[in-house]
Design a protein that fits this description.
The chain has 468 residues and is α/β, with parallel strands linked by helices. It has helices at residues 8-14, 29-32, 52-62, 83-92, 104-120, 136-153, 171-178, 197-203, 226-240, 257-260, 328-366, 388-391, 395-403, 434-452, and strands at 2-3, 6-7, 129-133, 161-165, 182-186, 208-214, 246-249, 273-279, 291-295, 307-309, 316-318, 369-374, 380-385, 411-413, 422-427. Strand 7 (246-249), helix 10 (257-260) and strand 8 form a beta-alpha-beta unit. The modification N6-(pyridoxal phosphate)lysine is found at residue 282.
């Protein structure tokens, strides 16, 4: 018998191959070798080196259990990039941003980004000062330190305090804990998950180093009423003579509000706002490890906190918690500024918000859910069960069930005073398309119906830790 003119014998021979070289066995070198604790010991370095391809294969095989970034609806962080940006990351990872003598172009790019952000955030006097950071948590520490030192240098005595809402990112309670600052937390309440201006004003006194407003809560995506908070603090200054600066934590909103909410006052256009932080690695569209902190005037960044560094040659001021770090995040941010421009960032933000609106509508259509964050500020949707007892399951059960379809959707309780409210949250960032959103809603409806039909009460699984 022959097939297309090829004899059966020839076919059989083509399917057989005589192995003449040991290297022929190394098609999959990771699995062709004896890999055990003698080669890869646990908790210590191996005695001998491995071939590069074997080491890389082991690393990649270990990572197979990680989730798929496209289906991770928990994170605010950027998880994908164009090939051109990937190349920039690879080309610039070895550049030490702190070595400004050797890499002056990278330093210039950093300043270009700071200038662009100052313009975006309406600092029109030209007196701004700023720095790049590893993210908003470091930026928050720097902003907090600047407020604390300025309060002390202006004669502050006693125990310093900081005022913020119960919904702030954990970096702010951390700051207060690390530097012995009293955290005056304004509680949330049913129907209000943002900082109340009147309550914030009541909480301040002569020992308040600053008030923090949040432009986009990680809990439900809502913006604090920054202009109203600023006005309340202006009234405190006029009536009580207590001049309290306002910092805006715009970790996510700093790259959303300027493009979606142009009439929403929140930035340096408000004289009460003295500093702003933002994360480049969220809606700034670069990979994790990029943040920014800007002050409207050097007056708000005391010189006593700025160090002169000459160990790498030359004299350069530095005010960061880190020292050596790659320039890739800064240069990637510059690429995205060039790549997208105002119109591009606006289009991306609009598409993210469009998806969030569709998700919010779809969630409510499923039946047992109530939307508590509808995506009208940040493109984030948070929702809870209207009646968990009647539903027969909790948001924690649903979160676990969705993992079966690959979706990572965090379930958590809201901050103090609203601990009884348990929600799921969906972050609609770039790459989460309307098509993917429709698939997610299908999974949500499927698992809600299945769990609701369970004949017995389900044991509550371990609550997932909320992360952003």
């Amino acid at each position: 018998m022959s097939f297309l003119g090829v004899s059966q014998n020839e076919v059989d021979m083509s399917l057989q191959r005589v192995i003449t070289d040991e290297r022929d066995l190394q098609v999959a070198p990771v699995f062709a070798q004896r890999i055990d604790e003698d080669v890869i010991p646990k908790g210590r370095l191996p005695e001998n080196p491995l071939p590069a391809d074997v080491a890389a294969g082991i690393v990649h095989s270990r990572l197979l259990l990680d989730g798929r970034a496209a289906l991770n609806l928990a994170t605010f962080c950027t998880t994908s990039a164009e090939p051109e940006l990937e190349r920039i990351y690879a080309d610039t990872a070895a550049i030490n941003l702190m070595n400004r003598e050797e890499y002056p172009a990278s330093s210039d790019i950093e300043q270009e980004c700071i200038n662009a952000l100052a313009d975006l955030w309406h600092e029109d006097d030209g007196r701004f000062i700023g720095c790049s950071t590893s993210g908003s948590s470091e930026a928050a520490m720097l902003a907090g330190l600047a407020m604390l030192r300025r309060w002390r240098e202006r004669g502050g005595t006693g125990t310093p305090n900081m005022v913020f809402g119960g919904h702030v990112h954990v970096c702010w309670p951390k700051f207060c804990n690390f530097w012995d600052v009293e955290a005056r937390t304004v509680p949330l309440e049913e129907g209000r998950t943002t900082l109340d201006p009147a309550l914030a004003a009541q909480a301040v006194d002569e020992n308040t180093i600053g008030v923090v407003a949040v432009l986009g809560s990680t809990q439900d995506g809502r913006y604090d009423p920054v202009a109203d908070i600023a006005a309340a603090l202006d009234a405190v200054a006029a009536d009580r003579g207590v001049d309290v600066p306002l910092h805006v934590d715009a970790a996510s909103g700093g790259f959303v509000a300027p493009f979606l909410d142009v009439d929403f006052a929140w930035d340096f256009a408000l004289p009460r706002v003295v500093s702003i932080n933002a994360s480049g690695h969220k809606f700034g569209l670069v990979y994790p490890g990029s943040g920014w902190c800007l002050w409207r005037d050097p007056e708000y960044l005391p010189e006593s906190l700025v160090f002169d560094c000459n160990v790498l040659g030359g004299h350069h001021p530095t005010f960061t918690l880190n020292f050596s770090r790659p320039a890739s995040g800064v240069i990637a941010q510059y690429y995205q500024f060039l790549r997208n421009g105002m119109a591009g960032y606006q289009l991306i933000a609009q598409r993210c918000q469009e998806v969030a609106r569709q998700v919010a509508k779809g969630v409510e259509a499923v039946g047992p859910f109530e939307v508590v964050g509808d995506g009208e500020d940040l493109p984030v949707v948070a929702f809870r069960l209207r009646d968990p007892e009647a539903a027969g399951f909790t948001v924690y059960h649903l979160s676990e069930a969705l993992k079966g379809d690959g979706w990572h959707v965090p379930a958590y309780s809201l901050p103090p005073n609203l601990e009884h409210v348990h929600v799921l949250r969906v972050v609609c960032r770039q790459g989460f398309t309307l098509d993917l959103a429709a698939k997610f809603l299908e999974s949500l409806a499927k698992h809600a119906e299945r769990l609701g039909g369970h004949p017995f009460p389900l044991p509550r699984p371990t609550a997932l830790t909320f992360t952003d």
